[in-house]
Structure formats: structure tokens, C-alpha cells
Amino acid sequence: MDQRIIDATILLLAAFVPSLIYLVWIRNTERYGREPYGRLIRIFVYGATVSVMVAVVLEMLLMVLLDMNIERVYQILGEDPGLSSLILACVIAPFVEEMTKASGVIRARNFLSDIEDGIVYGAAVGLGFAATENLLYESNSYFSDGATAFVATAIVRSLSSALLHATTTSIVGLGVSRRMRFGTSWLPYYLGAVAIHGLFNYAASFGTLYEKNFGASASLIGLFAAFVIALGGISMVRAKIRSLERGSMR
After folding, report:
1. Which of 66, 81, 239, 250 maximizes the CB count within 10 A of its CB?
2. How far apart are CA 70 and CA 63, in angstroms?
């Protein structure tokens, strides 16, 4: 078999299989009225394609605007060569990505028969987005740094970024479900998701930001914090699904 085909297969499996396993796990948190896999996969694919592509375009445009006005930003926040990267990671990316993923939940709004359904469809969008994002990062690691770095990247991102995207878009999905049922605004849920996403990205960037202050331990501190945010978030998401399901059965 051609080596390129083998490489592509490995990369696709490493990026998409963990997200699909998580999707089954979150779907099956519901004991009754579980969402059909066909619908979930369609929304997953939307997150993996449309949400990602729109996010990339918007982030590129916003980065161009930032670069054009970077001197003004330096005047306000102080001159730091890493400032634009920090703004991208902690401000631009969370706002843009949570919005483009939210569009996938809104697309599934007619399927939201119960409040908890928004959480499940939100997770589907987020996990699709995470799968494609992980594919890009893991491919770069594989071809630039070799197999060992690729495996490490795949493990770390599967246990952190994938769960982060599932968590934040689940929060948005909860807001959309409540909007459909009660007419309340989903904006606070979106802003909450943005805040968690930004905090996670800050933790993930901690090693780069504070290596001079903390040395090699900065990366470990940031990685630990990112894991706590991702794992704690998905635990709360699953607990919320179970809580809502129990409430609907009373």
C-alpha cells in the first residue's frame, strides 16, 4: 500500500475516532429518548466542515485587522511580540469558534424535543470541529517532528481540546434549547462558553507565556490546568444531561 495512504489513514483515525467515541459516550448519557445516530453524525460533519471553514476565514480576517492596528494595541496593553498570538488564542478564536459552532446547534434546532437534546447536539458539533482541528495539528506534528511527537500530540489533544470543544458547544446548545422552549436568550450561554474556551487556551499557552518565570514547569502547569478545565467541563455536561432527564420524568 502507498505510504501516503497509510499516513492519511493513521492521521484520520487518530483525529476522528476519539471524537466519535466521545460522541457515543455523551449520547448514551441519556437513558431514554436517545438521539438518532444519523442526525448526530450530520451535525458532527457540519461541525467538522462548515464550522471549521467559516472559523478559519473569520479568524484570518480578524488577524489582518489586528495586525493593521497592532501599534494602537501596544499603546493600550504594552508592547509585547507575543501579544497578537495571545489575543488570537484567548479572544479571537473563542469568540469566532463558539459562534460558528453555534450555527450547527441552531441548524439542529428542530430536533430539540427536550432541553438536554441541545447539550447532545452541541457536543456533536463541537466534537466534529475538534476532530478537524486535531487533524490539522496532528498532521503538522507528524510531518514536522515525527511519530513520537505525533502520538504525544494526539493523546494530549484527545484528552483536552476534544473535550473542551464538546463542553463549550454543549453549553451553547443548552442555551439554544432553552431559547426554543422558554424564549430566553442564549447569549449568556454563548458568552460563558467563550469565557471557558478563552481560559482553556490561556492555560494551553501558559508554558510559552511564562517559561522565563517558571522554566520547564510552566508547560506542566498549563497542561494540568487545561486537563482540569476539559475533564471537569465534560463531567459537568454529563451531570447536567442526567439532571435534566430526571427532571423531565417527574
Report:
1. 66
2. 10
pTM: 0.94
pLDDT digits (tens, 9 = 90+) for 103-125: 999 999 999 989 999 999 999 99
Cell 447536567, residue located: 240
In degrees, rounded to 5, the angle at the alpha carbon of residue 33 between the alpha carbons of residues 161 and 123 is 10
Q: What are the pLDDT digits (tens) for 173-182?
A: 999 999 999 9
Residues of the chain with pLDDT under 50: none
User: Taken in order 179, 103, 193, 76, is the CA torsion positive or negative?
Assistant: negative
The span from the CA of 249 to the CA of 140, in Å, is 48
Q: Which of 239, 220, 161 is CA-nearest to residue 196?
A: 161
CA angle 102, 63, 61 (to 5 degrees): 65
Geometric angle at alpha carbon 78, from 73 and 82, rounded to 5°: 80
Other CB atoms within a 10 A radius of the CB of residue 185 amount to: 10
93 touches 130 (CB < 8 A): no
